[in-house]
Amino acid sequence: MRIVRLTEETRRDILTQLLRRSPDSYPEYEERVRTIVQNVKERGDAAVFGYTKQFDGVDIDASNVRVTKEEISEAYENVDQELLSVIRKSLVNIRGYHEKQRRYSWFDSTENGTMLGQKITPLGTVGVYVPGGKAVYPSSVLMNIVPAKVAGVGRIVMTTPPGRDGKIPASTLVAACEAGVDEVYKAGGAQAVAALAFGTESIPRADKITGPGNIYVALAKKAVYGHVSIDSIAGPSEILVLADASANAHYVAADLLSQAEHDEMASAILITTSEALANQVSEETEAYLKVLSRADIIRKSLEQYGYILVADTMEQAIDTANAIASEHLEIVTQNPFEIMMKIKNAGAIFIGEHSSEPLGDYFAGPNHVLPTNGTAKFFSPLSVDDFVKKSSIIYYSREALEPVKDDIIAFANAETLTAHANSIRVRFEDKA
Questions:
Q1: What is residue 26's predicted lDDT score, i.e. its pLDDT?
Q2: What pLDDT digit, counting tens, does each position of 329-377 carry?
Q3: Mean per-residue pLDDT for 26-35?
Q4: Span 240-256, mean pLDDT?
């Protein structure tokens, strides 16, 4: 990995380079996505099935687009039983963590006849998109479905592209069933997102769409936002490790590569105050590349978006970490909890040398659907909050309204909204 001295100039250049990975940086795809979305909106099933044949090479129609009970049973027979056991253990942790996020309606009343509150209502239907193709991600299935289930969503619908055999991978299907999905449909890409946004003859319309995907999926979610809600427009994966001389270079290098293997556009960055550690991690990285199965992808990722930044002080390192606002942030220092308190921007924070990023991906419980491309400055991980909506509750008796009526009328008149003022005034015409 390249080693760079951290300065204001190098930090600015790296931030610019990282932002180029954003889905917004690929306008050449947007027109294709808009065409697909519009076609699905107008033609429904016919468009979805046509694109499935074109892109996935599979004949899908209204008779087989929805996964059947028989297909689910077959998946349970074919899934690796050890993996099924791990999925069930992971589910316990994920469900337990998200149950602590559950919100409840609240109401406050006063003796003078007012009641204010907030009513929490689960979304009616949620669409979960699960990518397919090159890799299978049952962990993402769990992370999207479980918080929706905990929130009390009435109908959870999953779409995922079928394989060449017209089937869904057994691990994906079993994970969805274990998490509590209601329906699964064989559709992928921008056409699946459009189907969930507008509904077709076979695929129901959702109130919200969540889940990761390629550039077409990301841009399709952007295109339908407003017709439905979405979780985020996700970019490539990223990890930032904040370390001092006490860190284990063997571990740090392994953690950096755990994210670089996702995608050629993934970002892996080490910021350290130790030149010795920087050199050791670079050497360890080269050693790992000789044995890891996805070395070609990792190498391209590191060439484009991999950095080892040597900072003069830990304060400079922390400031840069906050500026990058990484999806995953590991703190491997002598005083990790103290440094954690100074971190303002990160999707998930992993503390100490044994809290490696894959722990969060698969097992610990917190959600691994996280803000990317610097959006951790204002976005949060996927949570139960994403699957509920909040309504304000306002009640005033006549006796409570009367003492404040003149204040409301004055405010409305100041904004020249006389009809607003009148709607208060008419309730007290008998006292005029």
A1: 74
A2: 999 999 999 999 999 999 999 999 999 999 999 999 999 999 999 999 9
A3: 88
A4: 97
For tokens 């606002």, the residue is: 325
Tokens representing 284?
Answer: 């360890």
Please report the pLDDT score of residue 94 as a whole number.
98
Distance from chain centroid for Cα 237: 11
Residue linked to tokens 């010795």: 276
Tokens of 183: 């329906």
Provide the token pair at 20: 């180029």
Q: Check pLDDT > 70 for residue 134.
A: no
Instruction: Please tell me the distance from the alpha carbon of residue 316 to that of residue 6, in angstroms, as a whole number.
Output: 8
The encoded tokens of residue 110 equal 């006063």
Q: How far apart are CA 81 and CA 415, in angstroms?
A: 67
Phi, psi of 76 (to 5 degrees): -65, -30
271, amino acid identity: I
pLDDT digits (tens, 9 = 90+) for 101-110: 999 999 999 9
Q: What is the pLDDT of residue 432?
A: 63
Residues annotated as part of the active site: 327-328
Angstrom CA distances, 155 to 105, 128, 181, 183, 204, stand at: 21, 11, 8, 8, 10
CA proximity to 392, closest of 120, 114, 152: 120
Answer yes or no: is pLDDT of 121 > 90.
yes
What end-to-end distance do the CA atoms of the chain give, in Å? 80
152/124 Cα distance (integer angstroms): 9
Instruction: Write phi, then psi, for 25 (nearest 5 degrees).
Output: -90, 10
The confidence score (pLDDT) of residue 129 equals: 96
* Report field, pTM of the whole predicted structure over 0.85: yes
Residues 170-205 as b or e (16 or more Cβ within 10 Å = b): bbbbbbbbbbbbbbbbbbbbbbbbbbbbbbbebbeb
Question: What is the percentage of the chain residues whose pLDDT exceeds 90?
Answer: 89
Which helix or strand (DSSP H or E) is residue 268 part of?
strand 267-272
For the chain, helix, strand, coil in percent to 5 are 50, 15, 35
Backbone angle region of 328, left / alpha / beta, with phi > 0 → left and psi within -120 to 50 → alpha: beta
Do 18 and 374 form a contact (C-beta atoms < 8 A)? yes
Burial 410-422 (b: 16+ CB within 10 A, else e): eebeeeeeeeebe
The residue type found at 179 is A
Please list, in sequence order, all residues whose beta carbon lies within 8 angstroms of the beta carbon of residue 305, skipping any fewer than 6 positions away: 17, 18, 21, 238, 265, 266, 267, 268, 269
